[in-house]
Amino acid sequence: MSLNYMALAVPVFLFFIGLEYLASKITGRQVFKFTSSITNMNVGVAERLADLFTTASFYFFYDYLHQHYAIFDIKPGIIMWIGLILATDLIWYWYHRFGHEINIFWGFHVVHHTSEEFNYTAGTRITVFQAVVRTACWSVLPIIGFPAPMITTMLIIHGLYPFFTHTQLIGKLGILEYFLVTPSHHRVHHASNEVYLDKNFGDMFIIWDKLFGTFAKEEETPKYGLTKQLESHSFLWQHFHYLVELGYAVKQTPGFFAKIKVIFGKPADFDPAFRELAEKRFLSKHKVKTRSQKFRVYVVAQFSAMVTILFFLLLFEHYLTHYVQVTTALIILVTLINCGAILEQRRWVFYLEFVRGLLIIFTTYYFFPHPTTIVLLGCLTFLSLAWFTSLQRHYLLKLYGNTFI
User: Fold this and answer.
1) How far apart, in whole angstroms, are the C-alpha atoms of residue 375 and residue 62?
2) Hey, which end of the chain has fewer CB within 10 Å, N or C?
3) Are 303 and 171 within one domain?
4) Are residues 195 and 186 in contact, defined by beta-carbon separation less than 8 angstroms?
5) Are 200 and 216 contacting, i.e. CB atoms less than 8 angstroms apart?
């Protein structure tokens, strides 16, 4: 069978997240918060979902560059593997540093730093935007002469390692602190303390930070998240808030070159007033006010079902048609948005339920293309529209309890 064994990354990551959670309970360390952890993992699910449609194209991109523009014809060997891992990490260092020092790239990278907690769930916060940008940066590798199979193998290793540096439960690691990126080094990187800002950009090796003057030791207790916290668990807002802010800044800046300067300027110099402007325009203040925690059960149920579906979608992708892949991916995407909206206790989540229901109908008809299916699903849709308001009210009552207004 032609299975996609990269799908195993989903249960492996969940296993280690569960293991860290168990360890935190045993040691009495409060490093997990429900809303933050779900929000973090939602971002990770989206990245895994995007991989379904992008990973192959990245491979062919590297292969095309190697076949047409390679300067050298590098063959696998111990020296070349060592050279590749060092080159990969050096390129990452500069890609990562630019991601913190240039507005447009920070707009793609900021989602990884939005979490106010630091644990393995934060390690899953990677977006497809980051994947595209770093693929462009790593395009120098096939041009040097490294073949695509070597590069993709190395990138898998390079992608797994940093996941394990996102933890507060592992202290300093002795001699390894001198040359590897350790959890201690990466805690510094994720901290919003003034002394820690824009430090420790390395992914596997800390030597680049020491070489280029961006290294800092973990001394004072880190405070995680942004210097101005986002205060939103919306899946969409987590991804796009800074790009929206940047758009407002560019729009209000007169002159072409001045606009370019804003786009490629430093986040440290960016006017925080644009955050308020963007939130006022795009973030609704109309939330359901409830003390009930019933919605958490529904969020966990949705997330569990979504991750299970994602795992099998990735595992059997070679046996599924593009139609099934796309509709299933859309169902998962709507569920991600739904989970974020429920965590923010939004009223409009019911509309997402309706959209997801329609997507399920289209997927069901693909597997059962019978006139009876059309009639049954058509009747179900008609009844849902006829009693839309009543269904919406009952849904919100079940979800948020009797205190919603």
Assistant:
1) 49
2) N
3) no
4) no
5) yes
Please return the burial class of 165, using the count of CB atoms within 10 Å of its CB with bins 0-12, 13-18 and 19+.
Answer: buried
Interval 297-318 mean pLDDT: 92
Handedness of CA 380, 386, 392, 395 (dihedral sign): negative
On the question of pLDDT at 388 being above 70, the answer is no
Q: What is the pLDDT of residue 20?
A: 96
Q: What CA–CA distances, in Å, run from 342 to 14, 163, 225, 302, 384?
A: 22, 27, 22, 11, 21
- Position 227 in a domain: no
Which tokens go with 141? Answer: 């590798």
Question: At 222, phi and psi to the nearest 5?
Answer: -70, 145
> Are 83 and 191 part of one and the same domain?
yes
How many domains, the chain?
Answer: 2
CB-based contact 320:363 (threshold 8 Å): no
Helix-, strand-, coil-residue percentages of the chain, each rounded to 5: 70, 0, 30
| Residue 19 neighbours by CB under 8 Å, 6+ apart | none
Residue type, 233: H
Rounded-to-integer distance, Cα 339 and Cα 352, Å: 10
Q: Which are the contacts of 250, defined by CB distance < 8 A and separation ≥ 6?
A: 259, 262, 263
Task: Write out the two tokens for 145.
Answer: 């002469």
Q: What is the pLDDT of residues 372-381, one digit of tens each?
A: 777 777 777 7
Q: Which of 165, 196, 212 represents a domain boundary (last residue)? A: 212
Rounded Cα gap, residues 131 and 112, in angstroms: 12
Determine the structural domain holding residue 14 and report its residue range. 5-212
* Domain end among 193, 212, 231: 212
- C-alpha span between 44 and 332 (Å, rounded): 12
Regarding whether 324 and 207 lie in a shared domain, the answer is: no
Residue 179 near residue 205, CB atoms below 8 Å: yes
pTM of the model: 0.88
Q: Is residue 231 part of a domain?
A: no
Q: What is the mean pLDDT of residues 318-341?
A: 92
| Phi then psi dihedrals of residue 205, to 5 deg | -115, 135
- What own/partner pairs with CB < 8 Å and gap ≥ 24 does 226-233 have? 226/110, 226/113, 226/114, 226/192, 227/192, 227/197, 228/272, 228/275, 229/116, 230/114, 232/279, 232/283, 232/344, 233/35, 233/36, 233/38, 233/39, 233/340, 233/343, 233/344
Instruction: Look up tokens 């095309």; give the residue.
Output: 64
In tens, the pLDDT along 115-165 reads 999 999 999 988 878 888 888 899 999 999 999 999 999 998 888 999 999
